[in-house]
Structure formats: C-alpha cells, structure tokens
C-alpha cells in the first residue's frame, strides 16, 4: 500500500513539474510576443509623446507581471524593448533604465523569497524529523518503563504466590504434624 501511494505521489510530482515547465514556456512566448509588439509600435511611433505613451504602457505591463509574481518576465520584457527605446527615443532612456532597475530588484527579491522558502521548508523538514525521532525515543522509553513495571509486577506476584504456597505448605505440614501427634497420643 505504501509503495502504491509513493508511486502515485511521484507520478503526480512529475506531472506537476511537466505542467509547470509548459506553463513557463507559454509565458516566455507570450512575453516575447508582447515585446515584439511593443518594439513594432515604437518603430511606428511618429512623435516622442506617442513613444512615451507606448513605453509607459510597457512599464505598466511589467509592473503587472511583477504583481503576478513574474518579475523575471517583466525584466525580460523591459530588456528586450530597451535597445529600441534608447536608439530611437534617447529622451526616454532614463525612464526605461529606471524601470529595468526596478524589475531587476524585483527579480532579486523573488529569488530571495524562493531561497527563504526553501530554507524554511528544509528547517520544517528537519524539525519534523527530530520530532519523529523524539517521539520514537519517548515511545521506546515508555515501553521500557511499562515493560519494567510489568516485570516488577510479575516478580511481585510470583513472590507473593511463592510465599502463599510456602505458607500453605507450612500450614499443611503443621496440620499433618498435629494430626500425627493426636494419633500417637
């Protein structure tokens, strides 16, 4: 039963990993399409104001990705459109650089969170392992204590039974002795 349960858990984990990688690939492809569309829009823009609106929308999209926990995708999006912005609209270079810096910081924070979660999970697993060891030791100690008490109780019962048997035997000998004396007299 345990083997079956373990097998099912392994298959489920593999399926989840497979789905996750497919979802990541789909998200990367979507980000590439977005960046390609934004670059195309920037190429078609005729004024700095129009380009600024496109860059602002791209930054808003990046911020949404960050809010969704997709900081790396946001950074990739901004990294892909930055060369076009800098080449065609140098006045917007500082704006795109600030957004890229913010996205890079979000990626760092996400990685730190992931590392922190990994460490917390490891600590929880270690704590659980120690708790199991402690519980097993306590159970063993309790079993030893109960076994020792049972042995002591059995020894006391055997001693009491032996004493009772000796007392009855002594009484029987005394009774037989008295009966013999009575017959002799």
Morphology call: rod-shaped
From the N-terminal CA to the C-terminal CA, the straight-line distance is 82 Å
Which class do the helix and strand fractions yield?
Answer: mainly alpha
Counting DSSP E segments of at least 2 residues, the number of strands comes to 0
**How do the helices and strands follow one another from N- to C-terminus?**
HHHH
Low-pLDDT runs: 1-13
Walk me through what this model shows.
The radius of gyration is 41 Å and the shape is rod-shaped. It is mostly helical. The protein has helices at 2-44, 48-67, 71-88, 93-184. The two termini are 82 Å apart. The protein has four helices and no strands. The longest helix is centred in the C-terminal third of the chain and has 92 residues, at 93-184. The chain is 94% helix and 0% strand.
Topology:
Elements: H1 2-44, H2 48-67, H3 71-88, H4 93-184
Helix pairs in contact: 1-2, 1-3, 2-3, 2-4, 3-4
What tags apply to this protein structure?
mainly alpha, 185 residues, single chain, 94% helix
């Amino acid at each position: 039963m345990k083997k079956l349960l373990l097998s099912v858990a392994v298959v489920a984990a593999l399926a989840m990993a497979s789905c996750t990688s497919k979802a990541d690939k789909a998200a990367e492809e979507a980000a590439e399409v977005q960046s390609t569309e934004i670059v195309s829009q920037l190429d078609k823009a005729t004024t700095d104001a129009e380009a600024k609106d496109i860059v602002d929308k791209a930054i808003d999209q990046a911020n949404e990705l960050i809010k969704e926990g997709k900081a790396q995708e946001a950074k990739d999006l901004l990294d892909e459109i930055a060369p076009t912005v800098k080449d065609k609209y140098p006045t917007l270079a500082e704006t795109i650089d600030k957004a890229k810096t913010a996205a890079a910081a979000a990626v760092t924070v996400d990685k730190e969170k992931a590392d922190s979660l990994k460490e917390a999970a490891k600590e929880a697993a270690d704590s659980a392992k120690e708790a199991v060891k402690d519980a097993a030791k306590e159970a063993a100690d309790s079993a030893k204590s109960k076994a020792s008490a049972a042995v002591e109780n059995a020894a006391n019962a055997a001693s009491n039974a032996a004493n009772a048997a000796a007392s009855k035997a002594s009484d029987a000998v005394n009774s037989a002795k008295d009966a013999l004396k009575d017959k002799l007299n």
